[in-house]
Write a structure and sequence with these properties.
Helix content is about 45%, strand content about 15%. The protein has helices at about 15-25, 35-45, 65-75, 90-100, 115-140, 155-165, 185-195, 210-220, 235-240, 255-265, 295-300, 305-310, 325-340, 350-360, 365-380, 405-420, 425-430, 435-445, and strands at about 5-10, 30-35, 50-55, 80-85, 105-110, 175, 200-205, 245-250, 270, 280, 285-290, 315, 350, 385. The longest helix has 30 residues, at about 115-140. The radius of gyration is 29 Å and the shape is elongated. Keywords: Activator, ATP-binding, DNA-binding, Nucleotide-binding, Phosphoprotein, Transcription, Transcription regulation, Two-component regulatory system.
Length: about 450
């Protein structure tokens, strides 16, 4: 069976020009419409990837209002469609408005069949690439790792495999990493992968609670234990009975309270503030901090015995800058999420935005990336996010020279190139200065995925 030809929808009210265009494009299945309603009906039934649209449609054949209304209707129904707008009224304002509304390209009548043919062919090519990129992104998202974390970086996959291995062992785990690297997400993933997953996951940020209240938050209090204690209240440790307690920023726990926490870890019993009765609690402790606990122990600001109780297993989490390719993957995820939430906004990243995302150091890690993408969804004027929308300087788009580095640097360079090219192998190969088959060979040799 022969392969079906790609579908091209021609929206043109001039019957003669419509026939001319039909004859000119032998490599496509031609669909034709003369009005907005006909175009939308065909779009719903046939889903053509590319549309050529005349702005002068009835009932406004001498103007552009109906053409722009048709453009908006097409992109509202099928945002991925590449719409090539034609007009006999060559005005910069019409061209600008068409592009702002999401048109893929604009050309002026009278039509040059050869030139238009090149535009149409390029539109089909780009549509196919974008469809493949969306497929790969969806594949990546459906294979989200521990705790729903999105990553393709070997550095982070190694972390998730370590956490999965220790999840089944009833030991305390310490996660070390900078703020915004996903420590709570990994802690929740550890809980969900452990035998305690049917229990409660309770999280508390020790740095966000005043010292005078932290003891009560952790251990609870009896009625009348202090002014304002009008009823007996269970603490976070008790609330996590049978489950997992996540102590975020454990390095901020004051020394007097460290003693009480150590006693719980040793004896697995607590006493509420104002209480005299020991209460047995079966809770697993997972903690995290961005502080240098080794230095704090040396300086006497963190108890050494508590450190070793909490750090039976230590997992170091790489920063976003140490996870080549993940910034681009996460950026696309956040763009999709916030564009859907806000029911508007851009649908993709311009090359300068992808280069800027790849080049930025992300000192605030994933939290900073998420905030910048949210800002871009609000600030972008068109359907595409640019570097300025992210409040970033345009990234260096120069090709990465693979010949100057060895295997370890090859891996990083390939991941950077794939991130900048939105996962497109051909574009990544051009960035790297190598052929597409060579890049496929390197991907296979280094066990990397596009």
């Amino acid at each position: 069976m022969s392969e079906a030809l790609p579908k091209l929808l021609i929206v043109e009210d001039d019957a003669g020009l419509q026939r001319q265009l039909r004859w000119a494009y032998e490599g496509y299945t031609i669909l034709a419409a003369t009005t907005r309603d006909e175009a939308i009906t065909i779009l719903r039934a046939e889903e053509p990837p590319v549309v050529t649209l005349d702005l002068g449609l009835p009932p406004d054949p001498d103007g552009t209002s109906e053409g722009f209304a048709t453009l908006e209707a097409i992109l509202k129904l099928a945002p991925a469609t590449k719409v090539i707008v034609a007009s006999g009224h060559f005005e910069r304002e019409s061209m600008r408005r068409a592009i702002e509304l999401g048109a893929w390209d604009f050309y002026q009548k009278p039509i040059d069949i050869d030139a238009l043919g090149l535009i149409v062919a390029r539109a089909f090519h780009v549509h196919a690439l974008e469809a493949e990129n969306r497929r790969l992104a969806e594949k990546a998202e459906t294979k989200a790792v521990l705790g729903g974390m999105l990553t393709g970086a070997p550095e982070m996959l190694k972390v998730t495999r370590t956490i999965e291995r220790v999840a089944g062992a009833d030991v305390s785990v310490m996660l070390l990493g900078a703020s915004g690297t996903g420590k709570e997400l990994l802690a929740r993933g550890l809980h969900e992968a452990s035998p305690r997953h049917t229990g409660t996951f309770v999280a508390i940020n020790c740095a966000a609670i005043p010292e005078t209240l932290l003891e009560s938050e952790l251990f609870g209090h009896e009625k009348g234990a202090f002014t304002g204690a009008v009823k007996t209240t269970e603490g976070k440790i008790e609330l996590a009975q049978g489950g997992t307690l996540f102590l975020d920023e454990v390095g901020d726990i004051p020394l007097p309270l460290q003693v009480k926490l150590l006693r719980f870890l040793q004896e697995r019993v607590i006493e509420r503030i104002g209480g005299r009765k020991p209460i047995a609690v079966d809770t697993r402790i997972v903690c995290a901090t961005h502080r240098d606990l080794d230095a704090m122990v040396s300086e006497g600001r963190f108890r050494e015995d508590l450190y070793y109780r909490l750090a039976e297993i230590v997992v170091r989490i790489p920063s976003l800058a140490e996870r080549p390719g993940d910034a681009g993957l996460l950026a696309r995820h956040f763009l999709t999420r916030y564009a859907e939430q806000m029911k508007t906004g851009p649908k993709s990243f311009a090359p300068d935005a992808l280069a800027a995302i790849d080049a930025w150091g992300w000192p605030g890690n994933v939290r900073e990336l998420e905030n910048r993408i949210k800002r871009a969804v609000i600030m972008a004027e068109g359907k595409t996010v640019h570097a300025e929308d992210l409040d970033l300087a345009p990234g260096d788009a120069a090709a990465i020279n693979l010949r100057a580095v060895r295997e370890a640097a090859d891996r990083q360079a390939i991941r950077h190139a794939l991130a900048r090219s939105d996962g497109n192998v051909s574009a990544a190969a051009r960035l790297l200065g190598i052929s597409r088959p060579t890049l496929y060979d390197l991907l296979k040799a280094y066990d990397l995925q596009a």
